[in-house]
Amino acid sequence: MHILELNYKTQSDSEIESLLYMFINSYSEEDFMASQEIIDTEALRKILQHNDLIHFIAYEDKTPIAYCQIIYKAQSANFNSGAKINAISVLPSKRGQGVGLLLLTEVINALESNPKIKNIYLDVAKSNETAIKLYKQLGFQKAGELKNLFTKNDVLIDIETYSLNK
Ligand SMILES: CC(C)(COP(=O)(O)OP(=O)(O)OC[C@H]1O[C@@H](n2cnc3c(N)ncnc32)[C@H](O)[C@@H]1OP(=O)(O)O)[C@@H](O)C(=O)NCCC(=O)NCCS
To answer: Does the global pTM surpass 0.85?
Structure first.
């Protein structure tokens, strides 16, 4: 397995198609992720080209099996919130095999090599114990909690923020 920061400009049409397959299939009903936002190549291309987003992809041979999306406003001059891990997902058939851990480790290494990024943070559903265990394993510490912020299946859920300071 190898992990790459995505360079949109070098992606061929067939690579975009295989990324789309991965994005569409990396959600399951039980997941705490927004789904059905990336439904076609047009929607995918828009997200992949967004100025404030960085995408890391885990590949098995040439097949994308997991992704991590970062929000980082590199152009922001005087007030910068750091880099936010906005999404991470592994194809359901590839979970529990160390892919998420390796992907996030590489993402953190890449972000930490940028001296302007002083903080890496993320929001996670309080009940997403799998993800929280992974974040804690990598040194993230709980920075706060908001009650009843989002809904999942129409039920309000609590959100925790985790932060990794340099
Ligand atoms: C969270 C997620 C990215 C983890 O990826 P993964 O490849 O399955 O995780 P790994 O195999 O690398 O495991 C890394 C660590 O995560 C935790 N973990 C993984 N699967 C777990 C499970 N089923 N139960 C509890 N902890 C688990 C453990 O701490 C594990 O370390 P360990 O093996 O030393 O115990 C993956 O489960 C996923 O895509 N979930 C759905 C999307 C999601 O919830 N994303 C997070 C949104 S904030």
So the answer is: yes
